[in-house]
Design a protein that fits this description.
The structure is a homodimer of 132-residue chains. Chain A is mostly helical and 132 residues long. Chain A has two domains: 64 residues, Orthogonal Bundle (Arc Repressor Mutant, subunit A); 49 residues. In chain A, 61% of the residues lie in helices and 6% in strands. Chain A has a two-stranded antiparallel sheet. In chain A, a hairpin with a 3-residue loop joins strand 1 and strand 2. In chain A, helix 2 packs across helix 3. Chain A is elongated and about 55 Å long. The two termini of chain A are 33 Å apart. In chain A, 23% of the residues are buried. The interface between A and B is large, with 35 and 36 residues. The structure holds a DNA duplex (30 and 30 nucleotides).
DNA sequence: TATACTGTATATATCTTTATACACAGTATA
DNA sequence: TATACTGTGTATAAAGATATATACAGTATA
């Protein structure tokens, strides 16, 4: 009943958002299986040293996205997400971010080749950093 | 003395930020040459239907980045930016956005190839959309 | 049915972001 | 030097984001 979420206190990114992003990724990438019972809002709040209301917000947001299913008095579970839906969710977060990058590129007159090369470089650099 | 800036009223993105992003791109991509006299803060404020203070903030932010040079009583000019500096500025906005996309990809276990393909698709789709 | 868990709803505190008004100060020039 | 432009500094309004406490309501089960 423990889930791997790490909060970065230094970051300007708000707690609720850090939690949402990480929990969404865990569900959508299949690391948390359908039907898994999540920690109660009080338990997770204690673990992450924040208020119950903050966790509540996260669970509610993800339920509105169809990723969680919640039942008062019982708990909050990972919802059944069709394979198609899961892949859409999974890819859309990445695609949205890439679209933003392309917007930035267009504004400064980056060629398509230049952008592809930039991405290649970034991926390569990370692979090396991890391999060390 | 007119510069092509378009505000999207619908967007949640604040005015000052929309203006900054577009003006920065114009300078850094060389579309506004060094020494160009920009519209006065009052003139641009009137054009964009916002307060003088909002424009002032934009000019000040970009001056702090070294992209503008301003002289009280005279006006605000595009600063001299070394070719290297310009290219760093130009590329960094795109690279930052791409890094964010890669972060998103890593979280949902996207392979490198998958990400490259996503970017290729987006670029292709845009090329077709514009070609029409 | 008592109790010890679940989630829920309302109301509010705090901080940050965004945008503004208005009085002030420098510069050019008729 | 009057005036009509430039940018500047201070102070503040308004809205939104973030996080919270506290009282309430449903569920399981000893």
């Amino acid at each position: 009943m423990w889930i791997p979420i790490q909060l970065n206190e230094q970051s300007a990114e708000p707690m609720y958002h850090q939690i949402e992003v990480q929990l969404r990724a865990l569900i959508v990438s299949g690391q948390l299986a359908e039907g898994t019972l999540l920690p109660s809002i009080r338990e997770l709040a204690q673990t992450l040293k924040c208020s119950v209301i903050t966790i509540r917000r996260v669970y509610q947001d993800l339920e509105n996205e169809g990723l969680l299913r919640t039942k008062q008095g019982t708990g909050t579970y990972v919802a059944k997400v069709g394979d198609e839906m899961r892949d859409i969710h999974r890819r859309s977060s990445v695609i949205e971010a890439l679209e933003a990058a392309v917007d930035a590129g267009v504004r400064v007159r980056c060629s398509d080749e230049e952008m592809m090369e930039m991405l290649r470089d970034i991926l390569q650099r990370r692979r090396n950093a991890n391999g060390t």
